[in-house]
Write a structure and sequence with these properties.
Layout (H helix, E strand, L loop, with lengths): L24 E6 L2 H11 L7 E7 L7 H8 L11 E2 L1 H11 L3 E4 L3 H8 L10 E5 L9 H6 L5 E4 L2 H14 L5 E3 L4 H6 L9 E6 L8 H17 L3 E6 L16 H10 L7 E4 L3 H5 L2 E6 L4 H8 L3 E4 L19 E2 L1 H6 L7 H6 L10 H14 L12 H15 L5 H29 L4 H6 L10
Helix pairs in contact: 1-2, 4-15, 8-9, 15-16
Length: about 450
Amino acid sequence: MTPHGPGPAEDVSSAGPRPAPGPSRVLVVADSDSYVKYGAALAEQLPASWSVRIVVAAGNAVPSPRQLADAVAGTRFVGADVPVVGLGDLRRLLDGWRPDVVIAAARGYTVQATLSLVANTPQRPVLVSGIAGVSIPVLPYGLGFRRSVDVFVTHSHHELAESQRVSRRVGIPIRFELGTLPYLAAARAVRPEPRGRRRIVFAAQALVPSSRRDRQWLVEKLAETARQHPDVDVVVKVRARAGETQTHHEQVGYEELVSTLREEGRAPENLLVEDGPMRRHLEKASGFVTVSSTALLEAVAAGVPVLAIDDFGVGAAQINVVLEGSGVLAGAEELVAGRFRTPDPQWVHDNYFHHTADDTWADAVQGLLAVRAFEGLPPYRELPRSWMNSMREVWYREFAFRTGRTGWFAWAERRFLHAALTLNRGRWRLITALSGRPSPRERTVEPEPTRVPAP
């Protein structure tokens, strides 16, 4: 199978994927609740005979036992031990268990820190990564963190084309392959239960909308919806309860906002806050609403009518660029009226709902395993050697694994690294200003139009 991206890996499978010699060992490294869910679901697309283990990096977003159980629901990891590992633990696991495949299902700096532990030899594991959810617009720094992987899994024809375009533009050659967003298989099995009280499910997000004022406005619209439809439960589905962490830090939680509204006597009884697996909520949903949560795709797969609120705008900051042309973007007045939608069929095909026969990532991994067995793998791409990149590597490991240094040394190291990174950011801002070129962030928040390939 021909790989979809540029780079040295392009010709390793030119003769087509050959069966790997026997069942393989796969290590999934995650670092937050959403990435545990992503990594566990992605592993379900690999052969059932393969031995798969999942671990969580001991960083700043370790999921609680409740979050962990929700994240692995419906996968082979239900009831399995999912240990939290430090840097030394992971190094020993790589050296002792010797996985054939490492799936770095984590935030960028954890991916970089994890892959830097892999010995760069011909018998190294096949390295895989991806992003848990919608990744349009494609951010160059996200590609940079994953420059070492052999296979970068994208989840739609649109994402595949856009990732290739950005990869070429920024000069980071990566092999991209297509894989169905792993949550969708479970979601397709959901059959909404028509009996009992109907439910409108709102999927909360940590980053969008960002301001307290906007989040408060949104909660009040949900409360208004509940008042307008007293026979329907309006459920605010949260990922984290008070004291729990999640992939992105949440400045103002919806649980707090609903609680405040209730204390003021402005929250109807049918406005609820609940946690739990999204699949469980979709089984009871008659409508689904969000700003831009990936859970919207799960709702579409489950056949639940949806609505994506666009009162905060459409753009990279709202993470909803990909929804343009879908037919599901609308204002909150549609929510209050109880009017939900089904997406445009062409948009559905181009964005996450292609036929599984189009998927290539698992075959690509098996092809690379065969190359590894017979010839050995080429070296993976490492960060260029420089004092700044050496500092970055230490900093990434500190963030990803809380390496445990204490006392004066830890304080001095953090201060030095912070100063170095601040200086580096300032240097690039100065160069950008003098050159008159837009900054990388400015370039990525206003992506160029992309023509999606015809099916």
